[in-house]
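Consider the tokenized backbone below.
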């Protein structure tokens, strides 16, 4: 990295108001303008595709790992609310995988979050979502959170991955359309994936040359990179263990052999990462006194989350303690607040059920009135049972798998004030699950739980969703903490309030990312092993 002064274009970026904590988003418009920024430089490149299934994850993850093998420090990013791909990015780079989602955090924060995550890296690789121009359905095409939108916000060029199966000279017309469809989208080149033969490759390279796009790589068809999937996509890296590491290594090998790494780095463009970075301390304001211990569930069952969440918790004054409900028999000592992220508890329900000591302690903590924030999988863990297996029993509810996928952004309204939000507050979140939760009437304490949210789905009001009960907020709705920093600060403040329920005292050890991890005995007798800030959510 070098210290230079550079003009960074923000091509086509339109900043609008979103339903998140806004500092200065409203009314800002940078249309084709340029800002002069001075500071440390990192090069950036966005990996996109014409459609889902073209091989973006293989190329992006393989590129990250291949560059790391050359000694290049790589910062990984993913467009949109994906929780699974960033886990593989973390394996590939050794850095927390981070998300860039204008819909959830607001356009004004995307570049700042990018600079925050790219600090100290020589190259930033951003994996896109779906097709290059596929974003939130029904949204303004210029502000729909698609990959092209994010590329414009951070000022980075795009490398387009093409599924070459069935393609010939007509590829030139496809590429011409992608290059010209949205002004300001800059295609730096093409990577051909699943090429059938040398002759096939020659035909495709000639088609790319017709529209002036260089081919930076051509990957042959291969069945060696199959990563197991399930009802919500790939199996998370946290669950896939050694097989995940081997899959990333295979991707790196494939990219190293068939992609011109030097040309890819040359196609990436410099962006400043030292000016106007996202600062968690600035977002949450004054730290609370006393360093309340906030326990955050992690491990294979609760791997859905954002790297910025624990950073915001720590900045607000919390001592963040990561624990694994599959293995730890107790909450971290001194716990005054609990965060239960999303994940796949339904895949681990039988093992979670056998951890009776931890389930009882979670129930006791919630019953004493300690702040509890649960999203999606965390909501299921609080239920009485999940697919016939006993859970914590905090909520008189039953969770079960279904065949129906509930997926999409939701513009939600808080129906009741809680430890996170004020009644009537509007929040944009994301729903992503195949389970359902049924509350059992007549068995709730008095006063009983109230719904947390109401939103529309395709213009039709959906039933009230989630639970607010005392200091508990549990819902299927995933929110991005970077888009709701006041909610994080409010949660930590409640954890630090006099009289907050807490477990017994604690001793701390440091864990990667700067926060503290509480060492606890695991049920297999081993020490607590923690992931980076990106685990959980």
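A designed sequence for it:
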């Amino acid at each position: 990295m070098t210290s230079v002064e550079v003009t960074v274009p923000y091509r086509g970026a339109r900043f609008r108001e979103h339903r998140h904590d806004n500092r200065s988003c409203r009314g800002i418009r940078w249309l084709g303008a340029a800002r002069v920024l001075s500071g440390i430089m990192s090069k950036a490149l966005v990996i996109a595709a014409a459609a889902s299934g073209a091989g973006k994850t293989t190329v992006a993850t393989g590129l990250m790992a291949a560059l790391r093998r050359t000694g290049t420090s790589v910062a990984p990013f993913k467009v949109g609310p994906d929780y699974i791909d960033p886990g593989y990015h973390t394996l590939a780079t050794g850095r927390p995988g981070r998300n860039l989602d204008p819909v959830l955090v607001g356009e004004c924060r995307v570049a700042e979050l990018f600079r925050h995550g790219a600090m100290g890296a020589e190259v930033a690789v951003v994996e896109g979502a779906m097709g290059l121009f596929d974003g939130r359905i029904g949204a303004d095409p210029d502000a729909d959170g698609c990959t092209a939108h994010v590329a414009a916000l951070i000022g980075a060029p795009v490398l387009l991955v093409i599924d070459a199966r069935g393609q010939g000279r007509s590829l030139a017309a496809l590429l011409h359309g992608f290059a010209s469809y949205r002004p300001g989208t800059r295609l730096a080149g093409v990577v051909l994936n699943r090429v059938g033969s040398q002759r096939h490759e020659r035909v495709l390279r000639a088609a790319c040359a017709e529209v002036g796009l260089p081919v930076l790589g051509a990957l042959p068809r291969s069945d060696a990179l199959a990563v197991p999937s399930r009802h919500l996509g790939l199996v998370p890296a946290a669950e896939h263990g050694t097989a995940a590491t081997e899959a990333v290594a295979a991707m790196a090998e494939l990219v190293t052999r068939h992609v011109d790494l030097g040309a890819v780095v040359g196609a990436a463009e410099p962006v400043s990462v030292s000016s106007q970075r996202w600062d968690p301390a600035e977002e949450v304001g004054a730290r609370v006194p006393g360093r309340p211990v906030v326990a955050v569930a992690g491990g294979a069952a609760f791997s859905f989350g954002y790297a910025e969440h624990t950073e915001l918790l720590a900045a607000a004054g919390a001592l963040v303690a990561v624990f694994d409900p599959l293995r730890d028999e107790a909450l971290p000592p001194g716990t005054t607040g609990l965060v239960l992220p999303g994940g796949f508890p339904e895949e681990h329900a039988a093992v979670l059920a056998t951890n009776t000591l931890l389930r009882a302690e979670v129930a006791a903590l919630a019953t004493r009135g300690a702040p509890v924030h649960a999203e999606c999988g965390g909501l299921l863990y609080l239920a009485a049972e999940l697919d016939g297996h006993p859970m914590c029993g905090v909520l008189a509810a039953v969770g079960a798998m279904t065949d129906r996928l509930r997926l999409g952004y939701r513009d939600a309204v808080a129906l009741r004030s809680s430890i996170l939000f004020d009644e009537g507050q509007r929040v944009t979140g994301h729903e992503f699950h195949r389970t359902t939760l049924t509350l059992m009437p007549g068995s709730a304490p008095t006063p009983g739980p109230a719904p947390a949210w109401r939103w529309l789905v395709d213009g039709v009001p959906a039933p009230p969703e989630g639970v607010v009960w005392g200091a508990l907020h549990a819902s299927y709705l995933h929110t991005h903490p970077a888009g709701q920093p006041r909610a994080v600060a409010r949660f930590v403040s409640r954890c630090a309030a006099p009289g907050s329920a807490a477990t017994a005292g604690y001793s701390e050890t440091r864990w990667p990312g700067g926060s503290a991890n509480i060492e606890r005995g695991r049920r297999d007798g081993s020490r607590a092993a923690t992931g980076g800030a990106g685990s959980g959510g």
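Residues 454 and 460 are 11 Å apart (CA to CA).
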